[in-house]
């Protein structure tokens, strides 16, 4: 009946909720049948207390099982409502909330069942003594990683699919878990990095670049004349300024200048940004520009220098005797 009622509504939230609690609901009817059957049996009084605690524990277990299963659809519904109101939430944060709520429901359910079985949980935890201290020390890193995860989400440092770089690793984020994040390196290796370590590390998020930079230096031969140098610089500037793939906003620099007299070349520095941030597209733009720059230099009658040394030989008499030369 619940399925039929859920299907009549326009949204899918109730359908997901009904589907999620279907198994706990079936188990509930089994418990009801078991409870009614036990009521008709003649059970000694000393076993009645155990029977009641057992049945109550099953009811409590079923309740928290249903709550555990309902966490995912309810959380999805809450975040979907936020998206409709213009408050878009990171998918990784959504799953973090789901896992956190599941852990909370599980712990409360476990404590409730133990209390129904007349187990003093507080006394039990207090009586652990040294064992409890050992567990606490062992859980120290886990707690630190949980806080690291919370820091990553609240600061919005990165999200799934981002290309990040730290002093220790560089790659694409595939999973942000409760304890650690999985990062796929460019060598296709998968690295499991604790979130506490990530939260304490300086992180470069390359995926949030607004533009990609092209930075290069052209070294021309020293035989290049001043007039040729001026024309080459001017043509390079015009080429960059007229390329629609280059970012020409006011606050984004496009610089082409004669940089310095190098050891074996006159150096022209180029510094500008592309509109795209896509790696492959950026590489193709840089490829096209290098070819175009070479053509400009050649058309102006100059050429590129290569590292060289000039050796000066002075005329004079050698101090070595003839017998010293083979």
What's this entry about, in short?
This protein has eleven helices and eight strands.
Question: What would you say this structure looks like, in words?
Answer:
With 326 residues, this protein is an alpha+beta fold. 53% of the residues lie in helices and 15% in strands. It contains eleven helices and eight strands. Strands 4-3-2-1-5 form a five-stranded antiparallel sheet. Strands 6-8-7 form a three-stranded antiparallel sheet, covered by helices on one side. Strand 2 (170-176) and strand 3 (180-185) form a beta hairpin. Helix 1 packs antiparallel against helix 2, helix 3 (22-40) packs antiparallel against helix 4 and helix 4 packs antiparallel against helix 5 (91-116). It is elongated and about 125 Å long. It starts with a helix and ends in a 27-residue tail after the last helix.
Briefly note the structural class of the backbone.
alpha+beta
Arithmetic mean pLDDT: 83
Total beta-strand segments: 8
Determine Rg (CA atoms, Å). Answer: 36 Å
Instruction: Give the helix level as a range of percent.
Output: 40-55%
Measure the end-to-end span.
110 Å
Largest sheet: 5 strands, antiparallel
The structural domain count equals: 3
- Tally of individual helices: 11
Question: Which terms would index this structure?
Answer:
326 residues, alpha+beta, SH3 type barrels, Alpha-Beta Plaits, five-stranded antiparallel β-sheet, three-stranded antiparallel β-sheet, 8 strands, 15% strand, elongated, disordered C terminus
């Amino acid at each position: 009946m619940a399925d039929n009622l859920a299907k009549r509504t326009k949204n899918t939230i109730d359908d997901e909720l009904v589907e999620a609690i279907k198994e706990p609901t079936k188990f509930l009817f089994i418990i009801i049948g078991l409870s009614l059957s036990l009521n008709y049996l003649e059970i000694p009084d000393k076993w009645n207390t155990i029977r009641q605690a057992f049945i109550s524990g099953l009811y409590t277990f079923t309740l928290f099982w249903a709550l555990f299963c309902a966490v995912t659809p309810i959380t999805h519904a809450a975040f979907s409502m936020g998206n409709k109101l213009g408050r878009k939430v990171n998918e990784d944060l959504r799953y973090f909330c789901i896992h956190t709520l599941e852990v909370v429901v599980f712990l409360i359910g476990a404590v409730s069942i133990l209390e129904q079985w007349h187990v003093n949980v507080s006394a039990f935890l207090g009586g652990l003594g040294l064992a409890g201290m050992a567990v606490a020390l062992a859980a120290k890193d886990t707690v630190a990683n949980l806080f690291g995860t919370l820091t990553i989400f609240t600061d919005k440092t990165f999200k799934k699919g981002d290309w990040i770089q730290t002093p220790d690793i560089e790659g694409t984020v595939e999973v942000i878990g409760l304890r650690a994040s999985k990062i796929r390196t460019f060598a296709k290796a998968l690295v499991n990095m604790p979130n506490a370590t990530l939260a304490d590390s300086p992180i470069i998020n390359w995926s949030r670049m607004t533009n990609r930079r092209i930075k290069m230096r052209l070294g021309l031969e020293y035989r290049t004349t001043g007039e040729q140098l001026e024309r080459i610089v001017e043509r390079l500037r015009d080429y960059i300024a007229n390329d629609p793939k280059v970012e020409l906003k006011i606050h984004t620099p496009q610089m082409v200048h004669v940089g310095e007299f190098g050891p074996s070349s006159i150096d022209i520095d180029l510094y500008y940004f592309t509109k795209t941030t896509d790696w492959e597209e950026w590489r193709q733009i840089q490829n096209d520009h290098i070819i175009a720059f070479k053509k400009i230099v050649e058309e102006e009658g100059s050429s590129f220098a290569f590292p060289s040394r000039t050796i000066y030989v002075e005329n004079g008499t050698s101090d070595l005797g003839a017998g010293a030369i083979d």
